[in-house]
TrEMBL record:
Removal of H(2)O(2), oxidation of toxic reductants, biosynthesis and degradation of lignin, suberization, auxin catabolism, response to environmental stresses such as wounding, pathogen attack and oxidative stress. These functions might be dependent on each isozyme/isoform in each plant tissue. It comes from Sesamum alatum. Ca(2+) 2 binds at T207, D259, T262, D267. This is Peroxidase. InterPro entries: Haem_peroxidase, Haem_peroxidase_sf, Peroxidase_pln, Peroxidases_AS, Peroxidases_heam-ligand_BS, Secretory_peroxidase.
Amino acid sequence: MSFSSTPSFIFLLLLLLSHSITNAANTSNRRPKYQLSVNYYAKSCPQVDQLVASITSQQFKEAPISAPATIRLFFHDCFVEGCDGSVLISSKAGSKEFAEKDAEDNKELAVEAFDTVNKAKAVVESKCPGVVSCADILAIAARDFVHLAGGPYYQVKKGRWDGKLSMASRVQSNLPRANATVDELLRLFNSKGLTLEDLVILSGAHTIGFAHCRHFVSRLYDYKGTRQPDPSIDPRLLKALKMSCPHYGGNTDIVAPFDVTTPFSFDNAYYGNLEAKMGLLASDQALFLDSRTRPLVQALAKDKQKFLQAFAAAMDKMGSIGVKRGRRHGEKRRDCSIHMG
């Protein structure tokens, strides 16, 4: 997937608008909290941030989709088994259990995100062999892309080890669904040690990036079995989305931007869109419809700096979910896609 296939649809949208809890909760989350540190590699690989930046800046120019894709990859990593690079593992040929990345809910993770991590890992390995984990490289790359897209630059705490487990069967119950209710979202986020505020703030990552039609097509034609569109979609957005996403038999590669007003800028427009009934996913729009989350949506819509500051803090918090440390629980992979064995 690349941006090149989407401009006409975005143009159409802009014209018309004018202007994924269970008992699989990670055992790693129950371990004593291990403190990460900004200076973890100060002696062993002091230039790690710059090395990763040399790749992320290049990727952002050559394949801008790498930004939302890598931020999403980090989210999918942290929510399943903790932030341990387990989403980067490739399934073993002949194995009965697929790895996380081959789970249904991860099949749309863009290849550009994996490419970014692999390229950054290769550069880091050339300077600091066997030192920096894939999990830390993913966390640093996600931060870089937030900043490159116009969001905040924040210090990434480091010291994650790579996880030894990667199982597709753990994925579905640990990721939010596109039509999740606020209750379901809160249960999931709470199970990761995250709050209602974290839910609303981290959802703001949808200020950039795209979703495939299948994640919202039921809102356009048959909302909750009513055979009618979701009443909480702005009619102009509904019209634009229907033109790109037919009820049946449409092109499965078609995508729409989460943020229909400024799809390439990391800003707070996502929240203003929710106020204007222009959320793409039902789980996005639900944040404005629910009285518990609406006040924060409104506050963030009004204050871009508040959002950017809060987002940096929430990413830092999410980045410490289920962190592994030491050889008993983790490994330092040389190749991010293969367990050390």
